[in-house]
Amino acid sequence: MKFNQRSGFTLIELLIFSAVFTIAMVGFVVILISFTRVQVRQSAASEVNQQSQFLLQTIQGYIEQSSVIEMPTDVPTSTLKLRMQVNASDPTYIYLSGGALYLKKTEGGQAERLNSNRVTISSASFVKRENPPGHDSVSVVLSVEYNTQNIQERFSQTLNTAIARVSAATFDSNVIPSSTNVYDLGVSSQLWRSVNNLIYFSGSNVGIGNGASNPQQKLVVDGGIMVNPNNVEKPATCDATVRGTMWFTPFGVATDTLQLCVKLGSGSYGWATVY
């Protein structure tokens, strides 16, 4: 009589198999978790990079188009104020509020959020820099973070750059000082070259007209000089304060006169008729 003998796993073999299988599964899980973490972090980094580049490009575009950067020089601030050539955008503000960067056009305009809620702007700094004779520039520092409570997804970066204006300053209204007799146009160390290419400056000399672009005397006029076309009456008194004043008086059909306030030999002053 014959019996079929079946050989099975011994207890030791089962224990060894279980240990090998467990180690393999643990290794697989560790690899899967590491891969998932890398993917999650790459996704966060990609989001931060994309929105950071969008914010910088937006800020750069508005600064380059601006006519004036209306901010104190070398003073960090979280609000950028730009004067623009178009009324519908003047002034333009870019500012930080509540972890977001906003854009507002005109004083009463509606603020527009520039970054999505997937990232947070933890800090924003704008500093106006002057670099004569070049255009003013703005130093921009932005800190952008991925908006998450998951420590594995946390990613942040700080951007530091400088952007200069491209357009020349333009005005669509009168240039009027806010107070009387307290402001100057220009300074002695930085001289204007011309006004509308019609009035020219060379040191303390002034030239008027296209042929007087390089005046060599205090006043050079390329053309005639018309004096007193509205027949304003000359000052009644000629004294030390009026001395040297030339006055033309038209008399219609009669002979016109040209007079000069001078000091006479007696020490007094009077109008001397030149013609």
Describe the protein's topology.
Layout: H1 11-65, E1 68-69, E2 79-83, E3 92-97, E4 100-105, E5 112-113, E6 119-129, E7 137-146, E8 156-164, E9 194-195, E10 199-202, E11 205-208, E12 219-221, E13 246-249, E14 257-263, E15 269-273
Parallel strand pairs: 11-12
Antiparallel strand pairs: 1-2, 2-3, 3-4, 4-5, 6-7, 7-8, 9-10, 10-11, 13-14, 14-15
Molecular structure report:
- The chain is of the alpha+beta class.
- The chain folds into three domains: 11-164, no CATH class; 189-224, no CATH class; 226-275, no CATH class.
- The protein contains one helix and 15 strands; from the N terminus they run H-E-E-E-E-E-E-E-E-E-E-E-E-E-E-E.
- The chain has one helix spanning 11-65; strands at residues 68-69, 79-83, 92-97, 100-105, 112-113, 119-129, 137-146, 156-164, 194-195, 199-202, 205-208, 219-221, 246-249, 257-263, 269-273.
- The strands form four sheets. Strands 1-2-3-4-5 form a five-stranded antiparallel β-sheet, with helices on one face. Strands 9-10-11-12 form a four-stranded mixed β-sheet, with no helix packed on it. It has a three-stranded antiparallel β-sheet with strand order 6-7-8, with helices on one face.
- Strand 3 (92-97) and strand 4 form a beta hairpin.
- The mean pLDDT is 82.
Residues in β-strands, percent: 25-35%
> What portion of residues is helical?
10-25%
Number of beta-strand segments? 15
Oligomer state equals single chain
| H and E string | HEEEEEEEEEEEEEEE
Instruction: Characterize the largest beta sheet: strand count, sense, and whether it forms a barrel.
Output: 5 strands, antiparallel
Q: Count of DSSP helices?
A: 1
* Total discrete domains: 3
What is the gyration radius calculated from CA atoms? Answer: 39 Å
Question: For the residues shown, what is the average pLDDT?
Answer: 82
* End-to-end Cα distance: 161 Å
The helix-and-strand class reads alpha+beta
